[in-house]
Amino acid sequence: MINGKRIAVVIPAYNAAKTLEKTVREVPETVDLKILVDDHSTDETVQIAEKLGLQVFVHEENYGYGRNQQTCYREALGAGADIVVMVHPDYQYTPLLVTAMAGMIAYGVYDVVLGSRIIGGGALKGGMPFYKYVANRFLTAFQNVFTGAKLSEYHTGFRAFSKDVLMNLPLLENSDDFVFDNEMLAQSIYFGFRIGEVSCPTKYCEEASSINFARSVKYGFGVLATTLKYRLRKLGIARFRQFNPAGRKLLLDYYSSAKLSGAGEDDRNPTSAYAAVSLFPPSKGQREAGEFGADCDSWKEER
């Protein structure tokens, strides 16, 4: 706890067994809640997380990185967190900086804090592939021009958010894929939240997970599309639900209407696997494919 604010670290995980333990060992004692959401891993991620004493939530299907984050934030807020820090389990970012990042929010300096790999010039020294570094610099420059922000990078996975940010951004309008990160940051800028950065050393190692070249290209085009949507909305030329204050937001009573069969009375047991397929709102892709009929017409009115 910092300045009376309850701090949660959330870990969106998928096949992170090799690096999870050394990541968790660096989470500081100022953290009140440690939550891991497993996106249907095929390795021992869940078993290791349980041994480390984390609160574990398991998706019964692989829903994607963006949907994993939605569950992370929902569970942290439902547990009473005032500040939520996302830490990747691949040990690319050191959790030792969690206290510094959370403190900047706890004392009202910023609403969002990013751990930047670029400030300090350590990205390449830490093993970031050169093509990713070049893409990072190009996409960051592009977004700074079109959003008017002055961030050192938009693509870090080490982020801290206030409860107010997580409750008010229309996060359910975002992608289930990796571009969710960028959409969330664009939304934060659009809605006027204060964003700060701290220098964060990076470590790329063989055991760490990383999206491949094809997925990186897809992510890059997604970033360009998100930025153009942001600009068009700002200019009043087009409307997108991602930047609509009435867009769908996190629901903290998410699990209240249904339980996993056989879960028993303690349906909020952190190690329970929830029937996510029946409880998750339809994803962006499912809505566009028209899989949910007339009940979802209101979600199709504005994109």
At CATH level 3, the topology is Spore Coat Polysaccharide Biosynthesis Protein SpsA, Chain A
Radius of gyration: 18 Å
Question: How many strands in all?
Answer: 8
CATH superfamily: Spore Coat Polysaccharide Biosynthesis Protein SpsA, Chain A
CATH architecture: Alpha-Beta Complex
User: Which structural category fits the helices and strands?
Assistant: alpha/beta
Largest sheet, order of strands side by side?
A: 7-5-6-4-1-2-3-8
Number of helices: 11
Strand content: 5-15%
Question: Termini distance?
Answer: 39 Å
Order of helices and strands: EHEHEHEHEHEHHEHEHHH
Question: What about the largest sheet?
Answer: 8 strands, mixed
Q: Low-confidence runs (pLDDT<50, min 5 residues)?
A: 256-303
| Count of discrete structural domains | 1
Mean pLDDT: 85
Keywords summarizing the entry:
303 residues; alpha/beta; Spore Coat Polysaccharide Biosynthesis Protein SpsA, Chain A; 35% helix
Offer a concise description of the structure.
The protein has 303 residues and is an alpha/beta fold. Helices cover 35% and strands 13% of the residues.
Explain this structure.
The chain has 303 residues and is an alpha/beta fold. It has a single domain, classed as Alpha-Beta Complex (Spore Coat Polysaccharide Biosynthesis Protein SpsA, Chain A), CATH 3.90.550. The protein has eleven helices and eight strands. Strands 7-5-6-4-1-2-3-8 form an eight-stranded mixed beta sheet, with helices on both faces. α7 runs parallel beside α8. It is globular. 41% of the residues are buried.
